[in-house]
Design a protein that fits this description.
By secondary structure, the protein is of the alpha+beta class. The chain is built from 14 helices and 9 strands. It has a 5-stranded antiparallel beta sheet, with no helix packed on it. Strands 1-2 form a two-stranded antiparallel sheet. A two-stranded antiparallel sheet has the order 4-5. The longest helix has 22 residues.
């Protein structure tokens, strides 16, 4: 299909003629009984059907979505070389795996194909919306990156919701008319929330005695110290049932590992340790350490499969409130994947935040209570994976 008309200004005759030819061809080949076609403008982004005249108007007033390179929704198939050059965004790969991981056993066989096709379209629209430039020609920010940057600024400077909405309205007036910056804090949170990887809230004893999970999930008081599970109102000394006194935030490991193994390049990187052990006796990576050899000897079945993950765990306390007068201590727990090469295993992208232990005081020797969700027996793969024949080493 001819695309040269996209190089012209939207108000030039060449652009309008090209847009008219595009709309007429799409109407003839893919229009429905009401002469509606999929609109590829920068705002509709192939997610809405409109009358072909409205689509033509959108293309002239708004412009074509710049991320829509191959017009697959309008009949273009492309050559093999085009498909080889087409790079699927990493965002799409990760988000696709996240969306499908909970649906694998929920559908009947006859509904699987329809469900997959529907979810594929939803995911593609979400990713395309997130990766749309902030305005036509903008290369520094996308709709998603601008939203994340502004939300970070809101948190750093303690801006109120009303003040933030005012900033958004003013910022939109500075930008070109076709900008994609969300109009309100609610819209911005809704966009970011769609890509939330999620975490679990686990109630904890205020004295760090236990987590209210598994057998203790329905208890109202700590079985060890008797402290209430719920928050105590300091002014009235009444228990506020339903409001937990302490909450541990747990970011599940398995979904992230599944996403990593779903990408060919990353799956190969996770086997780096099996072929790159030092040959001169010098230690350049944990694979060259004595501890690694000890694990291999003690659990040979586990060591025989290079895909098995070896983690390093690190934690430390910090004050999240930027106030030196406060003694509040919050403890994030970070996992490092030692399967990766030295230049990857310690990179920011490879560090996995798995637990966020709340304050106000440090957990001390009771930190093992909070590490319980990380025990591998609690993180067995779901039934979609065949059971592993290898013994599980203790945590």
């Amino acid at each position: 299909m001819e695309k040269e008309w996209l190089q012209f200004d939207r108000f030039k005759d060449e652009y309008r003629v090209g847009a008219r030819m595009f709309v007429d061809k799409a109407r003839a080949d893919y229009g429905n009984s009401e002469d509606e076609i999929i609109c590829p403008c920068i705002k509709c982004r192939n997610s809405e059907h409109h009358h072909f005249e409205i689509v033509y108007e959108h293309l002239v007033t708004r412009g074509m979505d710049p991320t829509y390179k191959i017009w697959i929704c309008h009949g273009e198939t492309g050559s093999e070389s085009n498909h080889e050059d087409l790079e699927i965004p990493e965002t799409y790969k990760l988000f696709k795996d996240l969306c499908f991981q909970h649906d694998e056993n929920d559908e009947d066989d006859e509904d699987v194909d329809d469900t997959i096709e529907t979810r594929e379209a939803e995911i593609l629209n979400l990713v395309r919306e997130a990766e749309t430039p902030l305005f036509f020609g903008c290369t520094n920010y996308t709709k998603m990156s601008a939203s994340v940057a502004l939300l970070k600024m809101k948190a750093r400077h303690y801006l109120t919701d009303i003040a933030f909405d005012d900033i958004l309205r003013t910022s939109r007036s500075f930008l070109p008319e076709d900008n994609t910056l969300p109009e309100s804090l609610y819209s911005m949170k809704k966009l970011v929330k769609a890509f939330d990887l999620g975490y679990e809230k686990i109630h904890a004893c205020v004295n760090d005695c236990c987590l209210f999970r598994k057998d203790l999930q329905h208890l109202e008081n700590c079985p060890k110290c008797g402290a209430s599970r719920w928050k105590l109102n300091e002014s009235s000394s009444k228990i506020q049932k339903g409001i937990p006194a302490k909450v541990l935030r747990y970011f599940p490991i398995i979904p992230r590992l599944r996403r990593m193994f779903a990408i060919t390049e990353t799956a190969e990187q996770l086997r780096w340790h099996s072929n790159n052990k030092s040959q001169d006796g010098k230690m350049r990576h944990p694979v060259d350490a004595l501890a690694w050899e000890t694990i291999n000897r003690r659990w040979p079945s586990f060591a025989s499969d290079p895909r098995n993950i070896r983690f390093g765990l690190a934690t430390d306390g910090f004050n999240p409130f930027h106030d030196l007068r406060s003694t509040y201590s919050c403890w994030p727990v970070i996992l490092t994947i030692y399967n990766l090469s030295p230049w990857l295993c310690m990179s920011k992208e490879s560090l996995m935040l798995t637990l966020l232990i709340p304050g106000p005081k440090q957990p001390g020797n009771d930190i093992d209570v909070y590490l319980a969700p990380l025990v591998w027996k609690d993180n067995l793969f779901p039934p979609t994976y065949p059971p592993s024949p290898y013994p599980i080493p203790p945590f």
